[in-house]
Amino acid sequence: MLEVAPSIELEPAEAPAEPTPEPEAGAAPPEPDAEPGPESVAPEPGAEPTPETADAAALEPEPEAAVIAGIAAVAVPAVAPVPEAPPAEPQTVARYIAQALRSVGVRMAFGVPGESFLSLLEALPDEGIRVVTTRHEGGASFMGAAYGQLTGRAALVLGSRAVGAANLAIGVHAARQDSTSMVVIVGQVSRRFRGREAFQEADIAGSIGRLAKWATEVTDPSAIPHAMDAALRELRSGRPGPILLSLPEDLLDQHVPLGSAPAPRPRTNEIDSLAVREILHLLAGAERPVILAGGGVLRARATGDLVELAEMLEVPVIASWRRPDVFPNDHRLYLGMTGYGAPATVRERLRSADALVVVGARLNEIASFGYTVPARGQRWAHVDLEPRTSTPGLSAPRPGVSADARTFLRSAVQRLRFGVLEASRFDARREANERDRAAFVAATDVEPEPWDGPGVHPGRVVATLRRVVSPDSVLTTDAGNFASWAARGYRWQRPATFLGPTSGAMGYALPAAIAAALARPNRPVIALAGDGGFAMTMSELETAVREHARVVAIVFDNERYGTIRAHQETRGRGVAGTDLGPIDFAGLATAMGAFGVRVETDSDFEPALVDALGRAGPTVIHLVLDRRWLAIDRVLD
């Protein structure tokens, strides 16, 4: 509990502790000591390496290097000299790349095999990188993006030439929009055929690569060390995002010059202490401050630090769109999530704020309600690896702090330990926050009055999920208006329990759920999708069966592209192209080796959900909806 006194003093009485080193963008930082939930428990048996169980191993020297270091540190008797190491064996480009990826923590690869990168594909398992073969490159890239977002560790995505690269482009865009580290390697045509319109030839780096944070094509084996060094530096520095390498097929079996090795990226942990002090004064001096928190907090594993700061200053927190797990939703200071499905209370609270501090959020169009947040003239500050600057319609943050969220939050909390908040202001904030919380809770009741329409009611589905599903479950969502019910009515209690693309890509939910199930095999994983989005990647059900991914896919079926139909209804100029035909999703699941069940009434959903959660393999629950539902607040007459 924060001690209350007549004034606030933010200057420390003694020098604060050294700031926490900034976690690398491409590798998961250590969990905060106070972080609740499954991230702080023992590793799950049989799980893929995760930040909780494998980061130390991933970022420390390999066992062989540790042995060599140990020998060098021991005084060796003269009678038993250590023999000289044998000359290093030449490495192929494929082997060199696999080892370099392993050295920065890559443990999972997703893709469709292609003849243009067979040497690399074969080298990956030898380096301890698990290869998951998917049914489509789009599914693979969604899995890679979701895996990186959930674990904080970059995954590898593989595709072959122009066709494979075009298919996986959607996941590259999703990873970029979500600021998620991911390595994409595309096999290119052989060098001797480049420029001759060879089979499936295209300028991969210059086309698909432009969706990535960084892209290049390498054509000389002697340039591989430099290219990998540059690629891995980009992967692990600045704002996270996908990197892309285009590699000609005949390059992979060439040998890399001896003595080449990527250099580690130097770490930086400096933060502007004056800017931290300025932000704290902004929050402490305001009447109605609010913190808007996004994915940067989740990547930094800093939810516990955010909770501590919010409690110390009695400042409420609003989650950025599709980042609802950034702050425990049952906490008295949580006031909801921005974007689609947000109740009116969220937007009203942001508009009424006389001080807004944005931590780890990009303020995209949906998250900012069409770029109306921050409002014109509103005092605001931005903490991000790449903070916003002044643009048309947006004033520059004062201050803008270029920092990892955890570094900033810990520095702020450390400084606050030496200060106290004015008693009357603290009490006034608490009373106001209680009123705001009560309004938010009332506005997010999605369970309706008695429903007499056909099919299941989406609000009751979400209410049942909230009641039945355990807090450590991972929920993924697709694009579509069906998701607005979960956005408003579900409650996330722990970080790293939600995956949803801010790119708005359809087809994401099922591949993301498969990646989550492989990363967290002992947690329930539930995918929420509309019939339109689910059908785009439903072939990955076979991948889930083959990889023993325990996934429950819930399909909200209204036989139309509902979001676009809603736009048509708003325009009032007629309807075209948005109606779809029926699909037997339960039967399709059975045909692929999964379990499927069709649910047509509210009362049948809970038994089906409980049964699915108890199964060892994937399940599809096909929900039949009343087609009149267009969105959470809109029903056709």
Topology of this protein?
Blueprint: E1 4-5, H1 51-59, H2 63-73, E2 91-92, H3 93-103, E3 108-111, H4 118-123, E4 130-133, H5 137-151, E5 155-160, H6 161-177, E6 182-188, E7 214-217, H7 224-235, E8 242-248, E9 255-256, H8 273-285, E10 289-293, H9 295-299, H10 303-313, E11 317-319, E12 334-337, H11 344-352, E13 355-359, E14 380-384, E15 400-402, H12 405-416, E16 421-422, H13 423-443, H14 458-468, E17 474-477, H15 483-489, E18 498-499, H16 509-519, E19 525-530, H17 531-537, H18 540-546, E20 551-557, H19 562-571, H20 585-591, E21 595-599, H21 602-613, E22 619-624, E23 629-631, E24 634-635
Parallel strand pairs: 1-16, 3-4, 3-5, 5-6, 6-8, 7-8, 10-11, 10-13, 11-12, 13-14, 14-15, 17-18, 17-19, 19-20, 20-22, 21-22
Antiparallel strand pairs: 2-9, 23-24
Helix pairs in contact: 3-7, 5-6, 5-16, 8-12, 10-12, 11-13, 14-21
Strand order of the largest sheet: 4-3-5-6-8-7
In total, how many beta strands? 24
The CATH C-level class name of the largest domain: Alpha Beta
Mean pLDDT: 86
Share of residues in strands: 15-25%
Low-confidence stretches: 1-80
- Sheet having the most strands: 6 strands, parallel
Quaternary assembly: single chain
The count of domains is: 3
Short description, anyone?
The protein is α/β, with parallel strands linked by helices and 637 residues long. The longest helix is centred in the last third of the chain and has 21 residues, at 423-443.
